[in-house]
Amino acid sequence: MCVKNVGRTDAYIRISAGLMLISLGIMKHKGCLAALGSLKVAEGVTRYCPVLDLFNCSTMSDEELLDEALGSCVLDVEEDDDEFEELEHECGCHCDHHAEA
Fold first, then answer.
1. Is it the case that residue 26 has pLDDT exceeding 90?
2. Euclidean distance between CA atoms 88 and 39, whole angstroms
3. What sign does the CA torsion over 59, 64, 67, 72 have?
4. Where is the Inner membrane protein YgaP-like transmembrane domain positioned along the sequence (predicted)?
5. Which is the most buried residue in 16, 35, 48, 75, by most CB within 10 A?
6. CA-to-CA separations, 21 to 2, 13, 45, 97, in angstroms, rounded
7. In 3-state terms, what secondary structure has residue 25?
8. Contact yes or no for 17/60 (Cβ under 8 A)
9. pLDDT value of residue 101
10. Domain residues of the chain, as ranges?
11. Could you tell me the pLDDT band of residue 71, with boundaries at 50, 70 and 90?
12. What phi and psi values does residue 95 have, to the nearest 5 degrees?
């Protein structure tokens, strides 16, 4: 299974550069440029780069890595008198991490 290893900013750059290469390849009648561009667009959309994976690298920021590790679960903490009264579980995934503190 492929794990994301391309950060958001890098993904946007790959998509933009890929679309530019595709259009350049079409204008110049160079299939190899269009093929390379389509690979870059695919890497940006899937946020997976096999070359980065080969070298065990990632362009994801620490915040993106943390979001990936925690998944889509978000806890909303309401404070009252510097004590946590209640944890509301908003994502609806039926996890055990929303028990009262």
1. yes
2. 42
3. negative
4. 4-60
5. 48
6. 25, 12, 16, 46
7. helix
8. no
9. 43
10. 8-70, 71-101
11. confident
12. -90, 165
